[in-house]
Amino acid sequence: MQQQPWLEFVVADERYAVPVAQVIEILSWRECDPVPGADIFIRGIINFRGNIVPVVDMHQWLHKTPLTPQEDSKILTMMMAGEMIGVAVDGVEELIYPQQEQRESIVDGDNGLTETCYYHDRLIALFDWQLLQRLFYREQDVDPE
């Protein structure tokens, strides 16, 4: 049985993945308009097909330092709690298909990561999308429901 595909991306030379079903589109890097008073992990907002989309800086979320955009930097547009968000990353790698037996649970879920897997000799951390939603909205004091 074929496993669900995940989209592998890079943040600070580390590999992560999210379920590809959550991804709407991968955008080339574009500057974000700042949002005064927003949480530190909100890089700003972009206009995506007429929608105002907040962009989460995954460097800031995971490593507490802002992303420095490079040529390969991307913004993943995704659905979170019924709303579109952007996720700023260093780069996008490929679709992966981690098998259940390749996955290993990790204890620290404070940033939305609950599993790792070795895929083609690469260690990749997998985001639990529902947990990430709850954490993201908890940080903003918003109910995700």
TrEMBL record:
Chain ranges of the CheW-like domain: 3-138
Protein's recorded name: Chemotaxis protein CheW
